User: Which sequence fits this backbone?
């Protein structure tokens, strides 16, 4: 019975599970590697050197095991809450597009050689989608507030802003997540399944 529930949960959240496995694999290859940060992290436009791939690669790097663990837990939790609203490819699209747009905005706004890495910009885009879904479909969203996934998302949302860099990227991710989510709702791509 438990094994069947675990298989079902993994099947429903396969995109988040695969993303977490990619995060872990990359972290094993380059744990806390400063060269990876300098080569693949997002930074100000003055220091980007037309290496625009950084807006994608930075989403998969993490500073340390704690950073990796917190982002992975938040991603898996928000995935389990969005499962009844988003299809798998929509979830991936929202994570990637929200994260990339947030990193682009971050690169435009900052002028120093401050680097950003981590999946949090994409996760905040997904949290924004969750808020939009709660507001759009309140009758379908019966959440028990003491569920572990709900607690993890709330704690992550409140306490993840540990620096000005994190605050900027999270704010951009959340804002782009709202815009993308409204577009998906208007085009009827987000529905109750």
Assistant:
């Amino acid at each position: 019975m438990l094994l069947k529930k675990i298989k079902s949960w993994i099947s429903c959240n396969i995109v988040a599970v695969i993303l977490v496995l990619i995060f872990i694999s990359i972290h094993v290859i380059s744990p806390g590697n400063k060269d990876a940060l300098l080569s693949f992290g997002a930074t100000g436009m003055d220091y980007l050197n037309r290496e625009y791939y950084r807006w994608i690669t930075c989403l998969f790097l993490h500073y340390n095991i704690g950073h990796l663990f917190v982002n992975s837990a938040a991603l898996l939790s928000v995935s389990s809450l969005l499962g009844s609203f988003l299809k798998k490819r929509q979830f991936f699209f929202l994570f990637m597009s929200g994260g990339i747009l947030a990193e682009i905005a971050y690169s435009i706004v900052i002028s120093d050689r401050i680097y950003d890495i981590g999946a949090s910009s994409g996760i905040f885009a997904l949290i924004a989608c969750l808020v939009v879904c709660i507001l759009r479909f309140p009758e379908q969203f019966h959440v028990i507030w003491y569920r572990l996934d709900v607690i993890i998302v709330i704690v992550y949302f409140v306490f993840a802003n540990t620096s000005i860099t994190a605050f900027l990227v999270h704010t951009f991710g959340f804002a782009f997540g709202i815009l993308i989510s409204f577009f998906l709702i208007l085009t009827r791509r987000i529905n109750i399944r």
In short: The chain is about 70% helix and 0% strand. The two ends are 24 Å apart (CA to CA). The mean pLDDT is 91.
